[in-house]
Write a structure and sequence with these properties.
The complex is a heterodimer. Chain A is an all-beta fold. Chain A is about 0% helix and about 50% strand. In chain A, strands 2, 4, 5, 6, 9, 10 and 11 form a seven-stranded mixed β-sheet that branches. Chain A has a four-stranded antiparallel β-sheet with strand order 1-3-8-7, with no helix packed on it. Classes of the chains: A mainly beta, B mainly beta.
Chain lengths: ~110, ~120
Amino acid sequence: DVVMTQTPVSLSVSLGGQVSISCRSSQSLVHNNGNTYLSWYLQKPGQSPQLLIYKVSNRFSGISDRFSGSGSGTDFTLKISRVEPDDLGVYYCGQGTQYPLTFGSGTKLEIK
Amino acid sequence: EVQLQQSGAELVKPGASVKLSCKTSGYTFSNYYMSWLKQMPGQNIEWIGNIYGGNGGTGYNQKFKGKATLTVDKSSSTAYMDLSSLTSEDSAVYFCATGSLFAYWGQGTLVTVSS
């Protein structure tokens, strides 16, 4: 199975600040078709996860441009700029390149 | 608007089985896969498997083979997951989510296994 490793486990940021979350995979996420199926999700307290970013850098419908994804191969980053109160929760990376589909263990974002 | 409405919380005894449902609307059910996922309290998200709405073709995480059985009812655009021989390790919130991107999620069903 592809192991997804996220860092940090948690972080605290002031409103208006910027944060980065790292995600590394144990194998390359480049699919045979040339696409890289790395997604980012946010799970707000008491809610289901929601898709933020797919295929490394594509924002899902309705997602603010404050969220941006980058990376390639096995190293990926989610950046959140101008942090707002509604951004708090746990962020997960997930890979859809190889079955079984797997997720990172999450990064908890707290607002100072 | 895409909506996934999951069935309510379940309290089941060890050794029993339970069937969860995920009723969909707002998209063409038969054109997409539906995934099921497990999240134990405070824990990571695990992918259980997926099923194609068009023909019921399935794929499972090896870890959940024999534990979960996925089915669909195209006539009602509903996906189902049977969980069998339940133990305390099956106590979790179970989600349905569309496709392999998990673009849309149900609200989750809490399953508690207890005597």
